[in-house]
Design brief:
The protein is an all-alpha fold. It is built from 6 helices and no strands. It has helices at residues 2-12, 15-44, 58-80, 83-106, 120-140, 147-188. Helix 2 packs across helix 3, helix 2 (15-44) packs antiparallel against helix 4 and helix 3 crosses helix 5. The model has no long low-confidence stretch (mean pLDDT 92).
Length: 191
């Protein structure tokens, strides 16, 4: 099934789709997230979102949730259940289409790296689990079971590991793409 998904993205990747998701990603990061983070920090005395941390303990979570206050926790919950459900879908599709396009242009069709175009799905999955655990902690505050922050931080670490792996694949794809373009350009020029 994963091979079918990978093949579908390779077959249906178009430049305009990448630009569409890049535009959506840019709007979310440059506008929506800035507005939401500013609101969160105003309500909490400067405490930012849990999602942007790499590693956190139950004490850190309790401190942050307390700092948000009731209004901040409500705003964060609304954000998690709206924009932060859309955002991972947008960046996952942006990365999958970008990797598919780069690999299709830069690698041979039978290169096993072609199938890593769907690696960002792992990041999306752990981002979703992270968001679910954050929503649960906000909803249960102040009665958060000690295992939940540790579970959440595990999802966060895995999300960031998939993000780094995706960036590495994009870098490899870009190098392969430009190397192939350079080689084809030099082979067509007369000596």
């Amino acid at each position: 099934m994963l091979l079918q998904i990978s093949n579908w993205f390779q077959k249906n990747t178009k430049g305009w789709i990448i630009f569409l998701f890049l535009a959506l990603y840019t709007i979310l990061v440059m506008y929506v997230f800035q507005v939401e983070e500013t609101k969160m920090k105003e309500n909490s005395g400067g405490t930012g979102p849990i999602d942007l941390l790499f590693l956190y303990s139950p004490n850190t979570i309790n401190s942050m949730l307390q700092a948000y206050g009731e209004a901040g926790r409500t705003a964060y919950l609304q954000f998690e259940l709206s924009w932060d459900l859309l955002y991972p879908i947008v960046y996952t599709l942006l990365f999958i289409f970008s990797l598919s396009w780069l690999f299709k242009k830069a690698l041979l069709k039978n290169n096993p790296l072609q199938y890593f175009n769907i690696l960002p799905i792992g990041g999306w999955l752990f981002d979703l689990f992270e968001n679910l655990s954050i929503v649960t902690m906000i909803a249960k505050y102040p009665n958060i079971h000690i295992i939940l922050p540790w579970l959440s931080t595990s999802f966060t670490i895995l999300k960031w590991m998939f993000a780094l792996a995706t960036l590495l694949l994009l870098f490899i794809g870009l190098i392969a793409y430009f190397k192939k373009r350079y080689a084809s350009k030099n082979s067509t020029q007369p000596n």
